[in-house]
Amino acid sequence: MYRSQVLRDIAAAQARTSDTRGVMATAREIADPERRSWAQRDIAKTLLRAGDMPGAMATAREITDPESRSLALSAIAVSQVQMGDTPGAMVTARELVDAGWRSRELHDIAEALAQAGDRQASARTFAAAVATAREIAYPWRRSSALSAIAAAQARAGDGSSALEAIDALSSPAERAQGLAEAASGLASARQESSNAR
Questions:
Q1: The dihedral formed by the CA atoms of 125, 130, 132 and 135, expressed in degrees to the nearest 10
Q2: pLDDT tens digit string along 131-165?
Q3: 102 and 59, same structural domain?
Q4: How many domains would you assign to the chain?
Q5: Residue 112 gets which letter from DSSP?
Q6: What is the dihedral angle through the alpha carbons of 35, 18, 66, 85, rounded to the nearest 10 degrees?
Q7: pTM of the predicted model as reported, rounded to 2 decimal places
Q8: Domain edge (last residue) among 85, 115, 133
Q9: What is the domain extent for residue 128?
């Protein structure tokens, strides 16, 4: 365990200097797979903050733990959207194996597109997020994802699509929760609109 921590600290220092090859080699030396995945996730995020997108992506792709990999890829996709690389963010989001993570990332990308004023791309991406959310195996995660997407669609001014997302919910209680979240999103959008005047 001590060796793993020391190697993780060395890798973190290498990442701060953008020594991508060195950091990846050091991370591979960490024997504990879980600690190695944590280190690689942190390394990917550090490389991303340093502006080394290729290094961050290469590191994220080596992560074997699904959750750590998803966290790293999600951070990369968000950064890509912030840099205006929406096509790259979409490609990165598709690498997320878990439907819940992929749906969340598509949802975030769609919101960013809506805020940037690209309503058509936002609507397409929200539709992809809804389709992906429908693949989520666990009912409570699926309903939570669909409700959150519906609220975001309402905030973006697309009430009819929000209602379509809510229709995908299976129980009356879930639909009621989705409607409440969408109504809250719509109220937020209207408040922002009136404040802008």
A1: -170
A2: 999 999 999 899 999 999 999 999 898 888 998 99
A3: no
A4: 2
A5: H
A6: 160
A7: 0.76
A8: 85
A9: 98-197
Considering the domain boundaries, does residue 74 fall inside one? yes
Helix boundaries (H) for the chain = 2-16, 20-28, 33-49, 53-62, 66-82, 86-94, 99-115, 119-133, 139-155, 159-167, 172-196
Residue 36 structure tokens: 């190695």
Among residues 85, 118, 147, the one where a domain terminates is 85
Compute, in degrees rounded to 10, the torsion defined by CA atoms 69, 74, 79, 85. 100
Q: Is 32 helix (H, G, I), strand (E, B) or coil?
A: coil
Gap between the Cα atoms of 8 and 39, Å rounded: 6
Cβ contact 7:26 at 8 Å: yes
- For residue range 25-55, what is the model confidence (pLDDT) as tens digits? 887 888 888 888 888 888 888 888 888 899 8
